[in-house]
Specification:
Pfam family, one: GmrSD_C
Protein name: GmrSD restriction endonucleases C-terminal domain-containing protein
Number of strands: 8
Number of helices: 8
Keywords: Signal
Number of domains: 1
């Protein structure tokens, strides 16, 4: 039987390791469930509006953060373990634990940086009325729990769905996910539709 270490040395860097690594301690921590419930009560309920139509280019993302590092590369270094980067700030090795499914990856190509509150979801919840500068801040926010390194296929499956439509399959993370969602929406003054708010309330009540 071939061991994991042998497989990794053989070059199967995209293998999802069975045991999760210890996560780095500098990820933004979401507000508590009690605080999220308070914030949720003050978030306005409104139907989503996609007029004018969403344009991803209006959310300038992956801007330069420091030196040669853009937002994606900064999050990869922040969320990973033992991350080694090239002179161009590209991650050449390391490990990344995905909160959405509990898997650990050893290739940056298998990890996406998810906008926890998707850009289109923000747009239809009020960001269509923002300035481009405000949208750029939202798309590159490293202070709040809005950017997270996760399994790429799950990020793609999530797309622009809200809480009523999609929750992380790892049930033990759903409470933290909703706490973060409420924090981000509250901070940016975004609305929720009625189904989304009900879904948030249901998860927070069970936290």
């Amino acid at each position: 039987m071939v061991s994991q270490s042998t497989l990794l040395l053989a070059g199967t860097a995209s293998l999802a390791l069975a045991a999760p690594i210890e996560r780095r301690g500098n990820l933004p921590t979401p507000i508590s469930a009690a605080t999220a419930i308070q914030y949720l009560s003050s978030i306005p309920v409104a139907a989503e509006s996609n007029s004018p139509a969403y344009d991803r280019d209006l959310f300038k993302h992956w801007i330069t953060i420091s030196g040669a590092c853009n937002t994606r590369e900064t999050v990869l270094k922040r969320d990973g373990s033992n991350v080694v980067t090239s002179s161009a700030c590209a991650a050449t090795s390391g490990s990344w634990y995905s909160d959405y499914d509990g898997k650990t990856w050893s290739a940056a190509a298998d990890v996406d940086i998810d906008h926890l509150v998707p850009l289109k979801e923000a747009w239809v919840s009020g960001a269509k009325d923002w300035t481009n500068e405000r949208r750029q801040q939202f798309a590159n926010d490293l202070t709040r729990p809005q950017l997270l390194a996760v399994t790429d296929s799950l990020n793609q499956a999530k797309g622009d769905q809200d809480l009523a439509e999609w929750l992380p399959p790892l049930v033990s993370y759903q409470c933290e996910y909703v706490r973060a969602w409420v924090q981000v929406k509250s901070y940016y003054g975004l609305s929720m539709d009625s189904a989304e708010k009900a879904a948030a309330s249901k998860v927070l009540t069970g936290c």
